[in-house]
Design goal:
Layout lengths: L2 E3 L5 E3 L4 H13 L16 E6 L5 H10 L3 E6 L4 H5 L3 E6 L16 H5 L4 E4 L1 H9 L3 E17 L13 E14 L5 E5 L7 E3 L4 E4 L11 H12 L8 H16 L4 E5 L3 H14 L3 E7 L7 H12 L3 E6 L1 H8 L5 H23 L4 E3 L4 H8 L25 E3 L7 H10 L4 H4 L19 H20 L8 E15 L2 E14 L7 E2 L4 H14 L3 E6 L13
Parallel strand pairs: 3-4, 3-5, 5-6, 6-11, 12-13, 12-15, 13-14, 15-16, 18-20
Antiparallel strand pairs: 1-2, 7-8, 7-9, 9-10, 10-11, 17-18, 18-19
Helix pairs in contact: 1-9, 7-8, 7-13, 8-13, 10-11, 15-16
The chain binds xanthosine-5'-monophosphate.
The site of xanthosine-5'-monophosphate has 15 residues, from loops.
């Protein structure tokens, strides 16, 4: 392949598409205004509250509800009525959970669930609660019903099964059974093992022994949708543009005439946060973008192009690469790297913020799962593997109020909102990139030379994965510069160069990940390009470890 040396001495392949394509899309998209200039008020939010009884996948219920365009919030089972009332719920879902209703410390549904007169859907343990608290009976079964089961509807019409076949596959995971219906309830469906697998009172209180939120329940989403639309009477106005409109209105109200700062990283969360705040309060927002010298090739240019040139945002760009590199000299331990980068970031950010003068708010892209996780202290008991959220966090000394427009949103919702407010697709669909950047993809000490090698390598991987149309399907795909060197031969000469590892994984949420079965042809192209185009590298290996037991990043 033809090579050309760029001005900075970097090697670039002449057919790389990344930057030019990106900038074209950025120009075209960022100028578009999908939302009208005079923003219409968003319709009132419809909320269905999920009461959390501790099952592992309860967040999934909220997520599925939102996929039906109804807002859903997960609240602890002991949440006070004032908190729940503020959400103006249209209905409740009682989640599953590990307890048994007869245990002494079993969590109960709060009285307001029944007193409100609103529709209630009890799932698994939630159904046991309905039976137990409304006067029926629950007993422990001889054996646990776990896995697929065939659900048969009784010949009773119920809105929950509207438009669904008489029998369907569902996912079960329970040990307790309803042995006696509460007064006024009828059994709506059964399985071989559960004579009462669904029940209802005809007045909006419904119990399901199976899990409609998991993909294994074939009509699960329709069942949830039926509850939301047919039972709770929702219309489904939780759409990306309404979310954006509502958010912009809230930010305006919160910020008033105040001044806001926001740290841009190039990632989707900070990009959407900044854009929402900018749409809400325009020049009252100043963004700070710190180049820590650990970014991917062309990243600073892209960020400046989208936000400064196209959106006309107030943007302070600070190139602090040398300073970060200096601080990283001799640092080998991954956690220390994270700390050094995190602390330095806060220092630089504060220095720049001071120059702006009076600031009242800090906008940051905290997501809903982070908010939920921080409400559950018991989850903190797990062993610390890595410090993930160390960069871009709130400088603790700063006494600023927070503007967090994404704190109600899941990642995929953030992406949808990003598109609705006109951010370029390339930015919205960017794969996650860690705060400490390339520092944790260089095993051992970070040096300028190694960074140049890794940037050139990473560039090739990203471009080839994009050309193969796999970029979006992979959770992450990147290169790692190992500390190993190996012998090779180039022309008639012996080489002694670095071993580069390619990492590509599929994942839902980064908690677990599988190594991606990339086509051999793609691997061959990537490998050929790297050893031919990047001086100092003579061997490429492919990482075939999954998480667990490995992690996604090497450090
Ligand atoms: P691991 O390597 O723990 O990574 O499987 C899970 C996800 O987190 C990202 N990651 C980080 N993100 N700062 C970040 O902002 C960090 O220090 C950090 N370490 C890992 C990683 O890229 C993956 O998406």
């Amino acid at each position: 392949m033809e090579e050309e040396k760029s001005k900075s001495g970097r090697i670039a392949a002449s057919d790389d598409v990344e930057v030019s394509a990106y900038l074209e899309i950025a120009k075209a998209k960022a100028g578009e205004k999908p939302l009208p200039e005079e923003l219409a008020p968003a319709p009132e939010r419809e909320t269905v509250v999920v009461i959390d009884f501790g099952a592992q996948y309860n967040l999934l219920i909220a997520r599925r509800v939102r996929e039906c365009h109804v807002y859903s919030d997960l609240v602890p089972h002991d949440a006070p009525w004032e908190r729940v009332a503020a959400l103006k719920p249209k209905g409740f879902i009682l989640s599953g959970g590990p307890s048994s209703v007869y245990e002494e410390v079993a969590p109960m549904a709060p009285p307001y669930v029944y007193e409100s007169g609103l529709p209630v859907l009890g799932i698994c343990y939630g159904m046991d609660l309905l039976a137990h608290q409304l006067g029926g009976k629950v007993a422990s079964g001889k054996r646990r019903e776990y896995g697929h089961a065939v659900l048969h509807q009784n010949s009773i019409e119920s809105p929950i099964f509207k438009d669904l076949p008489p029998s369907m596959t569902v996912w079960m995971s329970h040990g307790d059974y309803i042995t006696e219906l509460p007064p006024g309830f009828r059994a709506l469906a059964y399985t071989d093992n559960s004579p009462i697998a669904a029940m209802g009172n005809g007045k909006g209180v419904i119990g399901l022994m199976f899990h409609p939120e998991v993909a294994h329940t074939t009509h699960g989403k329709t069942i949830l949708k039926n509850f939301l639309y047919e039972v709770c009477g929702c219309k489904g106005n939780w759409t990306p543009s309404n979310v954006a409109l509502e958010n912009i209105a809230r930010i305006r109200e919160q910020v008033g005439k105040g001044r806001v700062i926001c740290a841009l990283s190039g990632g989707v969360d900070s990009a959407v946060t900044a854009t929402l705040v900018h749409k809400a309060v325009g020049d009252q927002l100043t963004c700070i973008f710190v180049n820590n010298g650990l970014l991917r090739r062309e990243e600073p240019e892209r960020v400046l192009n989208v936000f400064q040139r196209n959106m006309n945002m107030n943007l302070i760009y600070r190139d602090a690469s040398e300073r970060f590199l200096h601080k990283l000299e001799g640092v080998v331990d991954p956690e220390l790297k994270r700390r050094v980068v995190g602390e330095e970031f806060i220092k630089v950010f504060e220095e720049e913020a001071k120059k702006i003068g009076q600031v009242d708010f800090l906008a940051q892209g905290t997501l809903y799962p982070d908010v939920i996780e921080s409400q559950a202290p018991e989850s903190k008991a797990s062993a610390k593997i890595k410090t993930h959220h160390n960069v871009g966090g709130l400088p603790q000394k700063m006494t600023l109020s927070l503007v967090e427009p994404l704190r109600y949103l899941f990642k995929d919702e953030v992406r949808d909102v990003g598109l609705a407010i006109g951010l370029p697709e390339e930015m919205v669909w960017r794969q996650p990139f860690p705060g400490p950047g390339l520092a944790i993809r260089i095993v051992g000490e970070v040096t300028k030379e190694k960074l140049e090698i890794l940037r050139a390598t990473d560039w090739i991987v990203m471009n080839e994965v994009k050309k193969a149309n796999l970029y979006r399907r992979l959770w992450q795909s990147f290169a790692v510069l190992t500390s190993s060197k190996s012998v090779g031969v180039m022309g008639d000469y012996r080489t002694y160069g670095y071993v580069v590892a390619i990492r590509a994984v599929t994942s839902e949420d980064a908690m677990t990940a599988d190594w991606a079965r990339l086509p051999y042809e793609l691997l061959a192209t990537i490998s050929n390009r790297i050893v031919n185009e990047v001086p100092g590298v003579n061997r490429v290996v492919y990482d075939i470890s999954s998480k667990p037991p490995s992690t996604i990043e090497w450090e």
